[in-house]
Amino acid sequence: MSSQRPETVRRFAAPDVTARKGKTPIVCLTAYTAPVAEILDDHCDLLLVGDSVGMVVHGLPNTVGVTLEMMILHGQAVMRGSKKAMVVVDMPFGSYEGSAEIAYANAARLMKETGCQAVKVESGPTIIDTIDYLVKRGIPVMGHVGLRPQSVLVDGGFKARGKTSEERSRILEEARATANAGAFCVVVEGVAEGLAREITETIEVPTIGIGASAGCDGQILVTDDMLGLFDWTPKFVRRYADLRGEISKAAAGYAEDVRERRFPGPAEIYFAKAG
Ligand code: KIV
Q1: Which of 87, 222, 223, 224 most suits a substitution to test ligand 1, by most atoms within 8 Å of the C-beta?
Q2: What whole-number distance in Å separates Cα of residue 267 and Cα of residue 86?
Q3: Could you say which DSSP state residue 203 is in?
Q4: 128-176 pLDDT tens trace
Q5: Structural domain contains residue 172
Q6: Range of the domain at 178
Q7: What is the domain count for the chain?
Q8: Against a cut of 0.90, is the pTM above it?
Q9: For atom 6 of ligand 1, which residue has the closest CA?
């Protein structure tokens, strides 16, 4: 019997992300399923199991209805599909705001049941102490400032943030406090380039931009947006494919073949053995 342990690939991890501050941009995408995670794993440093899964996969109007159980199931699938990328799972609305202790119990459950390397929380004044509490107890935390989708019902919809000088100062302060509380990186969503650059220059950990210009240390997009699965995408999304068109074309071809009895053909059926 060989005394060698099977070869294991070390995943990208929180210290690797932090070490990339100001260096090669960090490539991140969202993932929700094992097969897509497997494809993205070759190209990404980090896969985020975002609570956007509620809107993208489950057809919810926003992320407020996403549950811890949904995040665990999708987190497990993404971990099974990937080998190299760091996997971060979003803490859903209602799973961390109540108290640091509740946040710790839910973050620990997410990490134990999925095997992910970190959790993400949407930062705000009431969450800073919670980030500190989680990090001090061994849970790597990714912060999220600017447009915070879990707060759209209070903040007034999915629109860019930081348009007034008061709001810009508040977002900059939230990013600084998030980094100082120990977050290993901070997602900056839906803010103008000037503010994104100022945050990036001010905080010591990497910023990951989404709708926040190339002035960040890394970028993230919702994968289904950049694959062109929706007929509408926000201004900041670049579509790298037209999967909506491709899927529609494929379904139309299949439907026509079935109706015309062209599918299945001889190559797609089983034959009984002779004799
Ligand atoms: O839930 C999500 O997908 C996110 C990204 C958009 C950053 O939070």
Answers
A1: 222
A2: 42
A3: -
A4: 999 999 999 999 999 999 988 888 777 777 777 888 899 999 999 999 9
A5: yes
A6: 14-241
A7: 1
A8: yes
A9: 222
Q: Provide the sign of the torsion angle of the four alpha carbons 150, 153, 158, 160, taken in this order.
A: negative
Q: Which CATH number covers residue 168?
A: 3.20.20.60
Distances (CA, A) of 157 to 62, 153, 154, 190, 198: 10, 6, 8, 12, 24
Residue the block writes with tokens 């070759």: 42
Identify the residue whose C-alpha is closest to ligand 1 atom 4: 50
Q: Which residues are catalytic?
A: 189
116-139 per-position pLDDT tens digit? 999 999 998 999 999 999 999 999
- Using a 6 Å CB cutoff, which residues line ligand 1? 30, 48, 50-52, 90, 144, 187, 210, 220, 222
Strand extents, DSSP E, 91-147 = 118-120, 141-146
- Return the ligand 1 atom nearest residue 63 CA: 1
Residue whose Cα lies nearest atom 3 of ligand 1: it is 50
The answer to whether position 45 is within a domain reads yes
Identify whether 170 is part of a domain.
yes
- With respect to residue 9, please indicate whether it lies within any of the assigned structural domains: no
